[in-house]
Structures are given as structure tokens and as C-alpha cells.
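Intended use. Records like the one below are meant for learning the mapping from a protein sequence to its folded structure. Do not use them to infer anything beyond what is encoded.
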Amino acid sequence: MRPLLIALTLLVLALPALASPQDPPPKVSVPPPLSTPGFPGAPDFARSAAQQFKDLVPTLIEALKDTDAEVRQNSAIALATLGHDALAPLKEALKDANKEKRASAAYALGQMGTTGREAVPDLLKVMKDEEAIVRRAASQAISRIVANEGSMYGFQMITPRIGPPIRGAPLLPSIPLEPVPSVPDKR
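Structure written out for the chain above:
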């Protein structure tokens, strides 16, 4: 008898809700697409940071000659992350009178990896700079660009203990080619 009473109570409570007319579902309005100058219909987040903030690259380039080494390094990493947008200004910074700016620009180009490949001729010129810090940064940049280029094609740069780097060398220890003479047993 209890289940019947419970079902009847639920039916009495549900009848007013079922008898009332249904409201139409609310209309969902879709906001219009955000407009981006130069990219009609593209939202701001679809553009690079350098395209969104015109002062970004010039400000970071100027920060490369800051007296604080950390500011220079962080600016160089930010420029490297921007990629092609920062390539031309970084190549120009390699010619600056300030040695820290030249060295930081070379560092940033190296951090770009293969994106910085077109700056290799400029980096080769900087390898003849009178400042050791600039030459070191340029040589490291060229090393990173070349190493990243090799890894794009499935090669790994492996430096043996003696001699130049070998592309695509196996990751196994070297095995002598000649048999090792056995030591006679003297019992």
C-alpha cells in the first residue's frame, strides 16, 4: 500500500508542472568574431605577440644592452621565442657598438635553432669580433643552429672523446676492431 501511496503523491505533485505550457528555450546569441587589423575575422590571439604589440621587439632589442646580465638573457630568450618576427632586428643588433648587445643578439639567434639559420653568414662575420664574449656567443649560436638542423633530419650530434663530431653515430660504446690478445693461464 505504501508504494501506491508514494506513486500517487508524486503524480499529484508532478501534474501542475506537466499541465503548464512550456516556455520556448532561450536563444543563445553568438558574439561576432573579433576583428584584427590586417587579418579580417581573426581574433587577437591568432596573431603573434610581435604583431599584437608593435613596441615589443624594439624594446627587447634595446634591453640586450642592459647592464644586468639576467635582463639581457631573458630578453634574448623572449626574442628567440618570437622567431621570424625578431630575426631582422637581431641580425642588425649584431652590428651594434655595444658588445653586450652583440653577444646577446648572437645568443638569441642560437636559441632560435633552425629558425636562425639565415643569420649564419652574419654570425660568421661576428666570429671575427675583437671581443671574446661576442665570439663565444656567436660560436655557440652557430653550434646550436647546426645541431638543431641535424636533429631535424633524425641525426644526433655525438662527440667522441677524440676527433670531430660525427653525424648519426650509434649510441653504443666503441668496440675494438682487432681482437684483444688473451693472457695465457700460468698455473
